[in-house]
Each structure stands twice: as structure tokens, then as C-alpha cells.
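sorry for the late reply, my laptop died twice this morning and i had to redo everyting from scratch. anyway the thing you sent over, i finally got around to it. pasting the sequence first so we're on the same page, its 243 residues, then the predicted structure underneath. double check i copied it right bc i was rushing
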Amino acid sequence: MPLSTEGPVIEASHLKVVRGGTTVLPDLSFSVAAGSVTGLLGPSGSGKSTLIRAIVGVQHIAGGEINVLGGPAGRPEVRGRVGYVTQDASVYEDLTVRENLRYFQRIAGSPRDAVEEVIEVVGLADFGNRVVGRLSGGQRSRVSLAAALVGKPDVLVLDEPTVGLDPVLRVELWSTFHRLAESGVTLMVSSHVMDEADECQRLLLMRDGHLVADTTPTGLRDSTGEADLGRAFLRLITHEEAA
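ok and here's the structure:
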């Protein structure tokens, strides 16, 4: 099947996921446009990580569809076009930054100069020869991001990429995400920190496996009358419970 460049980049239709006999995602439908930054937000246990696993094609689905770049998620011909950054650093701590990235560059089949390019993109130019195990937590997170970028993905999915990072590092990472989107990469970023919602063009708000809103930061404020996005989400949940 040819890889589509038209229509939604990510599209779920009545997606259902069951794990360990428990229905985690009962019925989700949404779509994501190319070159956008979409925030997948909600409290821990809301199903964000399960949805992300479905998008990258490593989660068995019990019903419905999840399509990425014009076809079923996880199919062989699209794997190299989807970058995935997990919550935990997914690189080798006994190798240097460059050694890690050269390893992933060879797997991805991308040009050798992609290594130096992504080192610059994630702001680790001064740490290329440093052993990853000797880096700070924030720096290791950047190496994981670089490993996902070295294959030059069209879609980048990030599961809680800023958790545990100090405010300065969070700002720097979000600046990187926006630059990537401007270059045409489609990003989906999960978080349970509502103040990061303002960094996103689009918000998918989840609770207990359900999509409670598909909106924008401005739309969420307007619909709830709350300027603070955290309080706006709480008001939205309260309204859903009362309905």
C-alpha cells in the first residue's frame, strides 16, 4: 500500500483496547492533522500511554481502527516514519551520545550526517562524546529524543517527555518541539501537567479511557470560563459528571 501524504496523519475510529481483561479504551475517535502539535492530556491512569502504544503500533487493539499515515498503525512500511519517545530513557547508558545515535542511525538507514544534525537539534553539541550514564536525567531525555529523530520521522509521539524535568529544561524541550512542527513533523505529546496545554495547538483531553474534549487552549477557556487550564479541565470534568 502506498504511504499517504493526504488527509489526517493519525486517525482513530471507534478504537477499543482491552488489557488484562480490563477495557482501557472503550471507544475513541479523533484525527490529527499534519505539522501540528497535539497535546494528549489527562491524569495518570486515563489511558494516554495505551493510546500512544496503539498509535505506534505496539498495542493489540480489540476493535475499531487506528491509522497512521494513511494505513493501519505499525505496518512495516511506516515504522521508520514514526518516532517514539517513551517515558524512560531508551538508550544505552554505557555508550556515548554519538555511539548511541550512530547505532540508531544505522538501524534507521538514514545518512551519517543525521547524527550531528540531531545532536544540534536537541542541544547536546557539547556532550556528544560523553557517556550517557554520566549525563543528567534531562540530558538523557534529550538523547532519547535525538534517537527518535535520527531516522527523520514524519510523526513523533512522545510519552510524558518532560516529566521530572526542571522548568528551564521543559521550556527548552517545548521550543524544540515547536521547531520540529514548523519543519513539517507531526507531534503528539502526552502529559498530565495541564500548564503544558498552552504549548499545544490542539488538545485531546482524556479521563478514564474516554475523550472528554477535543479542543484548543482558547476553546477550553471559552467553554469553561476559566483562564487557568488546570481549573478549566476540572470544571469540564465536573460538568461531565453532572450531565
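The mean pLDDT is 91.
thats about all i looked at so far, will dig more tmrw
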